[in-house]
Design a protein that fits this description.
The chain has helices at about 5-10, 55-60, 65-70, 75-80, and strands spanning about 10-25, 35-40, 45, 85, 95-105. The chain is α+β, with helices and mostly antiparallel strands. The protein has a 5-stranded antiparallel beta sheet.
Length: about 110
Amino acid sequence: MTGNADVLGDMELFDLRVTVDRIEGRSVCGLRVGDYFELVNSAELRLPAGRHFCIYALQSVLPLLPAKQRQLPAADWLERDSAVCCPDPDERVVMRIERTGRRRLRSSDLT
């Protein structure tokens, strides 16, 4: 691609925030309601300073993030749903995926 479109980017992706929405059991891993991480610039995972995010909760949401970064058809279930549960049945941590912004990126800059 050349010209103005190449300078502006040839694709759009959403930045995402994954937030602990509720804990229906007991939080053994130390997560609290309101804890979050962000996925920005296609592949940068960011945590607030001094905070953590349980790797088991993280692994349950990671496979959904590339799809949530893209605009999907309105009827697609993943476009409508945003809740993800941690796999630990004692904790029952429920997270919410939110789109926080849209970025134009050049696919040639990404791998």
